[in-house]
Design brief:
The protein is built from 15 helices and 6 strands. The chain is α/β, with parallel strands linked by helices.
Length: 309
């Protein structure tokens, strides 16, 4: 089923054509953001959500789309067809994303929707518009262990023709450690939401827990959203949001984004979805260097990350 939402979104990207390029990053309050986001940050910062809106926040490539699909299915009582009404970025707009016209920005899409809305962001805690906290919006944060997150982000940057050129893997590891990638430091990102999770009522999830026991985490999300669905519906949601099913789902696998933007011949948007894939990419020397730096950057933090399950 190809929804009208998919056609409109895809056609707008195709019309943008030559305007799309690998945009440089520009610091906003010390955080590197894609140029178009940085240039429009005042409008993003001024966004006022409705108290009923839900924010899904992650560092890039930490399980965002997976969580968006789980939430959408929970809100629609496991109705798979209802959740194929449009691609993920149309059903759950990306708050800060700005692209060349006629591609709608996240703010443009949100203006066309009535609350309650499910909103995605990769912004670190300190750059999230204050209205989310002032209006006590529910927020789900998903964190993924640093090494797997780095590998996934590297492959994404290879295929995403709007992100800066990632260069060789060895140099990318250094850029990740130094917080030079789009949306900044992974370390500051995961710690920022962790430190605020109780004061701001943030549901803090771990990618590794979701892989280990997806049913348990779906139930946690359901309870946090004050929803109640049957055991049968929960089982259906777990099945529909398996990596295999989502990779085959045109409304979730970003096949709605044409190849001049997301070149999935280089790397699929949904590549592996595994825990521990970092072992296939880090050399012993890289791993040792990374671990030593990780200890320094995460010193004093008690976030229970796991690099294997």
């Amino acid at each position: 089923m190809e929804g009208e939402g998919e056609m409109t979104y895809r056609e707008s990207i195709e019309k943008a054509g030559s305007s799309l390029m690998r945009f440089p990053v520009i610091p906003v309050r010390g955080i590197p953001l894609m140029k178009l986001i940085a240039n429009n940050f005042d409008d993003i910062w001024a966004f006022r959500p409705d108290p009923s809106d839900l924010l899904i926040a992650t560092y890039p490539k930490a399980g965002t789309t997976w969580t968006q699909e789980i939430v959408d299915l929970l809100l629609h009582n496991g109705d798979a067809e209802a959740c194929r009404r449009a691609p993920t970025p149309v059903r759950s707009p990306f708050l800060e994303i700005v692209s060349p016209p006629p591609i709608p920005s996240g703010l443009d899409l949100l203006r066309t929707m009535d609350p309650p809305r499910v909103i995605k962001t990769h912004l670190p805690f300190q750059l999230v518009p204050l209205g989310f906290w002032e209006n006590k919006c529910k927020t789900i944060y998903v964190a993924r262990n640093a090494k797997d997150n780095l590998v996934s982000y590297y492959y994404f940057d290879l295929m995403n023709m709007t992100q800066p050129e990632p260069g060789p893997f060895d140099g990318y590891v250094t850029k990740f450690m130094q917080g030079e990638l789009s949306w900044g430091s992974w370390y500051d990102h995961v710690k920022g939401y962790w430190e605020e999770r109780e004061k701001k009522n943030i549901l803090y999830l771990f990618y590794e827990d979701m892989k280990e026991n997806p049913r348990r985490e779906v139930v946690r999300i359901m309870k946090y959203l004050d929803l109640s669905v049957s055991d049968e519906v929960i089982d259906r949601i777990v099945d529909l949001t398996s990596f295999k099913k989502m990779k085959e789902n045109p409304m979730a696998n970003y096949s709605c984004v044409p190849s001049p933007v997301f070149d999935q011949t280089i790397s699929p948007f949904m590549r592996k979805g595994e825990v521990g894939d970092w072992q296939n990419h880090f050399s012993a020397e890289q791993s040792k260097m990374f671990d030593e730096d990780y200890e320094k950057q995460m010193k004093g933090s008690n976030i229970p990350f796991r690099t294997l399950i």
